[in-house]
Structure formats: structure tokens, C-alpha cells
């Protein structure tokens, strides 16, 4: 019989079922005379079968949600960039909706309710990560935010008004760090208290109300701190809570 | 080709990663990193073999992670002992299953063995994915299969046999 000699690569191809029929017959005949090698090649094939037996069930598992999310993210942008763009879009849309309130040029106190409403709109719908530090670590949260703002902060207790502290986070404001405390009531309704530290002592200290795209904001200045309480509720209801906040901060 | 095609590859990426790492959570982390890297590099992808491209991304991540963690030696073929050490009695329990034997293969042999034997990729695609000449792929396949054979036979021999007790 005239046939090319059989290489080891062909033996692997035989075990992997990748030989053409004619060559396969030749390899089989050749192996018939070499029982030990024949057993080796059979074992290779069994290895493949055992691999499929052990790991094919993974193909039938439900794909974890985090992997589906990673696979479905917009291909044009890396995931973290895509997330950042989504947030900027929220900000841009709010800015557009609020443009009328922005003219004439905003004063320091006028920008406070807008910034607070924006931060409220961005973070209050967050289901899984509404805050950076939860209320369970309140002492740490307060110490951290106080240090970053350079002022002693004290999140008010609003249990009497039906709201519990969820936690808080550090934000970047126009003039530096800003603290946001979040509260939630039994129905899942959320309030945020936005606190910023201004460079200058405010000349005006009056208690004001603004409505920014469906979000009510009571805000006031107290020394170098500016406070804004935001919530998607009617003015009277929000005033009730804002009054409690104000009283606790100015006993 | 779009992201639906990437999503369709996820089960196969998971199967390969599971066999490669031997750990479900670590495998899914590797898949997630692969998907994120693929989408980040999407603009660089040219129409062709999407599956092979994804596997090559996973290979690079796996090798880098393994090097960083120092968990896996990645020496050349020549640096590896020709025959596995004889399994001790204590090793026998770990060796009993296929996954335990796979874990004892050098990572570079394990990759070739799995891409060919489990993922059914051609030898040429496997070479492209791993960035190796075809000859190196075949020699690693050969060594990997030999070694897995020894490990499995050691494991099978170590199966406890029931004895009739009077």
C-alpha cells in the first residue's frame, strides 16, 4: 500500500474527528497493527468526551445578569464611560429644563436649589447604590463628610416626620466638596439634604422655596453652610419636614 | 455582527472559563472582564471570526491575571518535567475528578487541550487565539493529552475498591 506516513498531528486529528474519510480509513488500518497506540488515541477521544460531559452543562445554565448587562452595553464606549454619559445626559436634560430659572446669571444662593435638585434627581432613583456610606455606619459617615467639608455636620433625625436616614455621599459642587444625606419613608419616598460649604459668610439667611422640574427644594444659608432639602412632594408636606430640619440645625 | 452576537457567545465563554479556572465565580469574573474589554475594543474589531477574537481576549486577560497573581507558572515547554510526578495517596482524592486533573496541568497545556477538545476549535484558530505557531500548539496538545492521561489513570487507579467484609 502506498500512502504517506502518518504523523502525530494526524493522530490527534483522527481522535478529534477532523480527518477526511479516506485518510481516516487509512489511519484506522494503520492503528490496527499498533494496539498500544490505538489505545492511546482512544483515550484522547475519551478525554474530549469527558470534557464535554463535565462542562457542557454550563451551556444550559442561566447566564448571570451581570454578564448579560456587560454583553449588552453599548459597544461604542467602555462600560464606565457609557455610565458616565448616561449621567451627564440626566444633568444636561435637567439643565435644559431649568434654563429659564438660570437667567439672569445665577447668584451663589440661586445655584443652590438647582444643584441640590440635580443631585436629588440623579441619586434618589438609585435602587442598589443610593448612598456611598449607609446609616449603619453613621458615625463614620458624619466624621468623613465633616472632614471633607471642613465643617461639623449633623444629619437631622426625621423619624417623627416618618423619614429614616439611608446614608450619605460626597459630591463635587461648584466650589468644592458637597455632602448629600438621603432619607426614606415607609413608602420608599426619598428626601435628600444637600449641604455645601461656601467660602464667604452669607449675607442673606432667609428660608426660600424653589421648584425645579417637579422637585421641590427648600433652601437656606446658615453662616458658611448652605442647606437644601429636596423631595418630589407638595410644598406643604416638604415644608413640614424642612421646618423640622431647620429647627434641629438651629436649636 | 453586533452585540447580540457577543451575547450569543457568552455561554461558550463561560464553559471555557469554568474549565480553565476550575472556579465558577472566578470564571464569570473572567468572562465579564472579557466582555468589557471586547466592547471597549469594539472599534478595533474587523469582521471575521468573532468567537476566536473573544477567546483571544480572554486568553490575554487570563495570562496577565495568572502572571500577576503568581498563581500559575508559565514556563516554556522545555522547563516542564516530562512526566508527572506519581500521585501520592493524599493527592488521590483531588485527582479523582476530571477538574482536579485539569487543574494539575500547566496552564498553557490546559488552554490548548480545552480550546481543541472542549471548544472544538480548529488547530489553526487555536494557534491564532494563543498567538503561537501551529507546531507549538500541536506539541502542547500532545504533551497535555499525555499528561492528562497519566493523571486520569492515576486517579482511576486510586478509586477506593470495596472489599467484602465477613
Show the helix and strand layout:
The complex is a heterodimer of chains A (251) and B (166).
Chain A: H1 8-15, H2 21-32, H3 35-55, H4 57-60, H5 65-72, H6 79-97, H7 108-123, E1 133-134, H8 138-149, E2 164-172, E3 177-184, E4 190-197, E5 208-212, E6 215-222, E7 225-231, H9 235-249
Antiparallel strand pairs in A: 1-2, 2-3, 3-4, 4-7, 5-6, 6-7
Chain B: H1 3-21, H2 24-40, H3 50-69, H4 89-95, H5 98-103, H6 107-117, H7 123-130, H8 134-157
Helix pairs in contact in B: 1-2, 1-3, 2-3, 3-7, 4-8, 6-8, 7-8
TL;DR?
The complex is a heterodimer of chains A (251) and B (166). Chain A is α+β, with helices and mostly antiparallel strands and 251 residues long.
Describe the protein:
The complex is a heterodimer of chains A (251) and B (166). Chain A is of the alpha+beta class and 251 residues long. Chain A has helices at residues 8-15, 21-32, 35-55, 57-60, 65-72, 79-97, 108-123, 138-149, 235-249, and strands spanning 133-134, 164-172, 177-184, 190-197, 208-212, 215-222, 225-231. Chain A has two domains: 8-60, no CATH class; 98-249, MucB/RseB, C-terminal domain (Phosphorylase Kinase, domain 1, 2-Layer Sandwich), CATH 3.30.200.100. Chain A is 46% helix and 19% strand. A seven-stranded antiparallel sheet of chain A has the order 1-2-3-4-7-6-5, sandwiched between helices. The longest helix of chain A has 21 residues, at 35-55. In chain A, 27% of the residues are buried. With 166 residues, chain B is an all-alpha fold. Chain B has two domains: 1-72, Orthogonal Bundle (Rna Polymerase Sigma Factor, Chain: A), CATH 1.10.1740.10; 75-159, Winged helix-like DNA-binding domain superfamily/Winged helix DNA-binding domain (Arc Repressor Mutant, subunit A). In chain B, helix 1 packs across helix 3, helix 3 (50-69) packs across helix 7 (123-130) and helix 7 packs across helix 8 (134-157). Chains A and B meet through helix 1, helix 3, helix 4 and helix 5 of A and helix 1, helix 2, helix 6 and helix 8 of B.
Amino acid at each position: 500500500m502506498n500512502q504517506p506516513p502518518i504523523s502525530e498531528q494526524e493522530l490527534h486529528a483522527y481522535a478529534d474527528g477532523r480527518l477526511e474519510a479516506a485518510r481516516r480509513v487509512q489511519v484506522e488500518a494503520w492503528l490496527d497493527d499498533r494496539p498500544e497506540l490505538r489505545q492511546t488515541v482512544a483515550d484522547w477521544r475519551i478525554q474530549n468526551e469527558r470534557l464535554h460531559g463535565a462542562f457542557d452543562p454550563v451551556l444550559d445554565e442561566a447566564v448571570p445578569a451581570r454578564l448579560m448587562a456587560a454583553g449588552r452595553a453599548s459597544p461604542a464606549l467602555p462600560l464606565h464611560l457609557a455610565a458616565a454619559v448616561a449621567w451627564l445626559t440626566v444633568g444636561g436634560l435637567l439643565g435644559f429644563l431649568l434654563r429659564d430659572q438660570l437667567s439672569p446669571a445665577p447668584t451663589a444662593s440661586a445655584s443652590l436649589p438647582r444643584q441640590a435638585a440635580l443631585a436629588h434627581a440623579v441619586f434618589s432613583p438609585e435602587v442598589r447604590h443610593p448612598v456611598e456610606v449607609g446609616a449603619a455606619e453613621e458615625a463614620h459617615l458624619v466624621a468623613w463628610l465633616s472632614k471633607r467639608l471642613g465643617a461639623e455636620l449633623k444629619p437631622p433625625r426625621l423619624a417623627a416626620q416618618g423619614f429614616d436616614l439611608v446614608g450619605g455621599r460626597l459630591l463635587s459642587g461648584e466650589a468644592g466638596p458637597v455632602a448629600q444625606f438621603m432619607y426614606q419613608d415607609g413608602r420608599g419616598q426619598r428626601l435628600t439634604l444637600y449641604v455645601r460649604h461656601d467660602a464667604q459668610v452669607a449675607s442673606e439667611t432667609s428660608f426660600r422655596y424653589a421648584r425645579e422640574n417637579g422637585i421641590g427644594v427648600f433652601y437656606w444659608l446658615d453662616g458658611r453652610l448652605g442647606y437644601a432639602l429636596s423631595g418630589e412632594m407638595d410644598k406643604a408636606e416638604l415644608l413640614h419636614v424642612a421646618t423640622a430640619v431647620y429647627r434641629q440645625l438651629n436649636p | 455582527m453586533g452585540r447580540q452576537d457577543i451575547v450569543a457567545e457568552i455561554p461558550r465563554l463561560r464553559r471555557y472559563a469554568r474549565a480553565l479556572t476550575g472556579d465558577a465565580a472566578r470564571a464569570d469574573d473572567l468572562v465579564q472582564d472579557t466582555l468589557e474589554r471586547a466592547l471597549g475594543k469594539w472599534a478595533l474589531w474587523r469582521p471575521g471570526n468573532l468567537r476566536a477574537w473573544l477567546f483571544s481576549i480572554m486568553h490575554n486577560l487570563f495570562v496577565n491575571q495568572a502572571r500577576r497573581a503568581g498563581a500559575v507558572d508559565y514556563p516554556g515547554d522545555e522547563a516542564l518535567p516530562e512526566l508527572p510526578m506519581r500521585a501520592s495517596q493524599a493527592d488521590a482524592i483531588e485527582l479523582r475528578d476530571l477538574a482536579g486533573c485539569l487543574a494539575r496541568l500547566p496552564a498553557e497545556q490546559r488552554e490548548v487541550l480545552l480550546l481543541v477538545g472542549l471548544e472544538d476549535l480548529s488547530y489553526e484558530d487555536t494557534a491564532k487565539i494563543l498567538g503561537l505557531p501551529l507546531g507549538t500548539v500541536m506539541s502542547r496538545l500532545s504533551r497535555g493529552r499525555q499528561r492528562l492521561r497519566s493523571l486520569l489513570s492515576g486517579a482511576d487507579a486510586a478509586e477506593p475498591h470495596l472489599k467484602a467484609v465477613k
